[in-house]
Amino acid sequence: MMNLIAVEGINIYAYHGCLAEEGLIGGNYIVDVYMQTDFTEAAKTDDLNKTIDYCAVYEIAEKEMAIRAKLIEEVAMRIHKAILKDFTAVQKARVRVTKLKPPMNGNVDKVYVEIE
Fold it and tell me: Given 44, 50, 63, 99, which residue is catalytic?
């Protein structure tokens, strides 16, 4: 059986971007993580050890977002790899990293990348 666990709206202040100022000033980001797994046993037994710990997912996102990168593509890839490495029960994962109010020559609310 395939089930979905989503951890959405992880709000993190980080320092990613190609501009030197972004490394100094930082900005707001949102990370969303979607994991396909079979949590049937957890649902039957009400046992956290049989499913994915949401707090651990948050900690992975927080840890990887703290490492500066020029591209959010690189950060999303690191989070994706860490999710698959740390949670062997995850059969498929999708990670979205959204940069709010990116410094561009125009009024843009957000940009995001997704890795599956």
Answer: 99
